[in-house]
Design goal:
With 291 residues, the chain is α/β, with parallel strands linked by helices. 41% of the residues lie in helices and 14% in strands. It has an 8-stranded mixed beta sheet with strand order 3-4-5-2-1-6-7-8, with helices on both faces. It is globular and about 60 Å long. The two termini are 22 Å apart.
Length: 291
């Protein structure tokens, strides 16, 4: 349930946090798994990130998903990630395919049998396979239930992985359909001081106080930008979206887009490649916001 009088606290985790860990898998490593015939793609770095898998493998989305899933596995959660997920959040959203978050929350290796017990939809969501609705409902080591939404798919469901423009567009379609079914639910529930049944990650994203960490807001990830714009257009009083941008140099073009969407950009400069120190500063900032 979402308390419409008090925005839920939502953590949004991207791949940047995984790169802190030993042997963390980044985008370039994922793309490397798609090269199977020795050829290269001229100018690949200038192609939007979301379209790079197609540039390598063509439009066979299923092959891209299979090859990527074959090369992925969860790593030991980094200490910063462990600290982050145990802050006072009501839900966690992630674009990552692997299960470091579940490992950290449950205090042990996330197995397929544990996933089957926890994999669910919430509160009357349509019983469908789409990432929009599915989550792993984790009871953490402190006894709290935390829904973890893999909004770009998860490793155990290879066909759920979003790795192409085709699948990004499909994701936006399902978000739009969910948004249509909601109509004006958020504002109506807020005006009547009634709690809202959460049906998918979009509910938490639109109504929540969202803290995005380790996500670079690549301009080609248009499902997230659609959700950000929809959040900014919401009539109900909702929480802000805080974008923690952690890099050696500020991206002015991206800053302009964040500002246009009403997103609170919080830039943390990385000095001498010390990403861990920058993330520690981010943790302190989030703790202060949550107090």
């Amino acid at each position: 349930m979402i308390d419409t009088q008090d925005p839920p606290k939502v953590l949004f985790v991207g791949n940047g946090l995984l790169l802190l860990g030993k042997n963390g898998t980044g985008w370039s490593e994922l793309l490397g798994s798609l090269y199977t015939d020795g050829r290269t793609v001229p100018g690949l770095g200038r192609i939007p990130s979301a379209m790079q898998p197609e540039a390598i493998r063509g439009t066979d989305v299923e092959t891209v998903q299979d090859l990527t899933a074959y090369c992925l596995d969860s790593r030991e959660p980094h200490g910063i990630l462990k600290k982050l997920v145990f802050m006072d959040f009501d839900a966690i959203l992630t674009t990552n395919y692997t299960y470091e978050i579940e490992d950290a929350l449950s205090g042990g290796r996330w197995t397929e049998s544990r996933r089957r017990r926890c994999h669910t939809t919430l509160y009357g969501s349509p019983q469908v396979l789409y990432n929009t609705y599915k989550c792993n409902l984790i009871r953490d080591v402190n006894g709290r239930e935390i829904p973890v939404f893999h909004i770009h798919g998860e490793l155990a469901r290879r066909r759920s992985l979003i790795l192409s423009y085709y699948s990004y567009a499909d994701a936006v379609y399902h978000l739009i359909e969910m948004n249509k079914r909601r109509k004006n639910d958020y504002e109506e529930h807020q005006l009547s001081a009634a709690p809202l049944n959460c049906q998918g990650w979009l509910d938490y994203f639109l109504m929540g106080e969202v803290f995005a960490v380790g996500f670079g807001f690549d301009l080609s990830e248009f499902d997230i930008w659609w959700a950000a714009e929809r959040k900014n257009r919401e009539h109900a009083i909702n929480g802000s979206l805080h974008a923690y941008m952690i890099s050696e140099k500020r991206d002015t073009a991206k800053s302009s887009m964040l500002r246009a969407m009403g997103i609170d950009e919080r830039f943390f400069r990385v000095r001498d490649k010390q990403y861990g120190k920058a993330y520690e500063a981010v943790l302190e900032d989030i703790l202060e916001c949550l107090r």
